[in-house]
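Name: Peptide chain release factor 1
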Amino acid sequence: MAGLPNDKLDALERRFDSIEHAMSASPDPDNYVRLSKEYSELSPMVAKVREYKVALSDLAGAEELYNSGDKEMAELAYAEMSELREKIETLVQDIRIMLLPKDAADEKSAILEVRAGTGGDEAALFAGDLFRMYQRYAENQGWRVTLMEASEGDAGGYKEIIANISGAGVFAKLKYESGVHRVQRVPDTEASGRIHTSAATVAVLPEVEDIDIEIRPEDIRIDTMRASGAGGQHVNTTDSAVRITHIPTGIVVTSAEKSQHQNRANAMKVLRARLFDEQQQKASSERAESRKSQVGSGDRSERIRTYNFPQGRVTDHRINLTLYKLPQIITGDALDEIVEALITENQAAQLAEMDQGS
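Structure predicted for Peptide chain release factor 1:
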């Protein structure tokens, strides 16, 4: 296993100590917020680095005892040396992962978009299943899900559904879900019991602020229109629905909730996310040439996962992972097993790339 850049570890500790000192000197509120944010980001890594240094010191002491010539003490020291080497190896791997470059969007909340693909009514039903899977997963993580836009399928489910998922680290966990999800099952409407294959597309976009991406007023056209509804009392009879067109890119976003003010805010939020995502996609494709093995996190046309109901299995094609836990995954309760496997695979690819470059 590759070692650690000790100079960088020392520099991190010095920076951490200087932040701690600055915070104790009663800085102004704005500076305090900035310092405390950096302090909380560095704290877990510095704690791990200090644990690593203590383990190294303990190992040196145990080795000295082992070579002291005292047979009884040498036996005790040998057992301790074995435990310490194992601990150090684990700490080195943990620190190496912590030192990997961070995606600037990882800590952000996210916009989740699920759309029915090929398969007609069955695709819309599957899109509904996927949305509920993410909704349940989000609840298990302590995140908040806010529905932004939904177009229901004729037989249930959704032709399209968009939601805001807010919380710490949402995008880091969900970014690998973007792509084509395929389902193989017997639809309720299939009398002969024939298995159908349908698909839905998932897009996970980091939520971005005005400071992250600039949208010039002259670059957008905002139209209001009458929202369509399910009929009866649910029909919105005012011109509250909003459609925003970003003229330079042709991106069109709509929102049709009850409040025109909220619709405008929702539509702008989605537009910012899509424009930011477009920039990220461009940068990602430029990096992709040197990262053939890295798990994709954005190609919307890539078939990433198959949910096979007759066999009760879910297969993620990017990492060749198959789990026979479809009921637990589709309800969101076991989705974390796939999410964590994808994160681990990506970290391994980054570490390998880092070692090749060193």
